[in-house]
Each structure stands twice: as C-alpha cells, then as structure tokens.
Amino acid sequence: MFPTFTSISTFELLNKMLESMMNESKAPFLAILMKDLHVLPDFHGNWSPMADPVSKGVICGLTLDSSEKQLALLYLATV
C-alpha cells in the first residue's frame, strides 16, 4: 500500500517536528536543540567576506542516530 500524501510541505513537517522537540525538552529556544551539532557549509570554499577558495566544510557532532528527530536537527543546523 502506498503512503497517503497530505498538503503539508516537507519544511512545515520539519518545523512542526522541531517545535514539538523543543516543547518536549522544555528548551527556552529552538537553537539549544543543536548545541552539539555544528555545520560550516564551505564545501566549495569560502567566498566572503575574505575569499578563501581552499576552505573546507565541516559537519561536527554527527552520531550513528538516523532517526527522524536527528535528521530534523541536521535540517535546523543548515538553515
């Protein structure tokens, strides 16, 4: 059987999931959920304010957790 599609977008779903996680953990603000997860998206070099074409990207704090909640946190870290 095929999954049922709804009118909610992927981004709305992720945002609702993050809001739910924030309420469950009683976090004072959303960003505290990713206190151990950091993303520097310089995978093609850093071009501002001072150009560094050899700069490398970093994702720090990855675990083997592949749950929907962990993927939502990765989404939040890249926004």
UniProtKB/TrEMBL annotation:
GO cellular component: cytoplasm
Pfam families given in the database record: FGGY_C
Keyword check for Kinase: yes
A molecular function GO annotation: D-ribulokinase activity
Entry keywords, A to Z: Kinase, Transferase
Keyword Kinase recorded: yes
Domain Carbohydrate kinase FGGY C-terminal: 19-78
Xref: InterPro entries: ATPase_NBD, FGGY_C
UniProt GO BP: pentose metabolic process
The name this protein goes by in its record: Carbohydrate kinase FGGY C-terminal domain-containing protein
Species, as recorded: Kingdonia uniflora
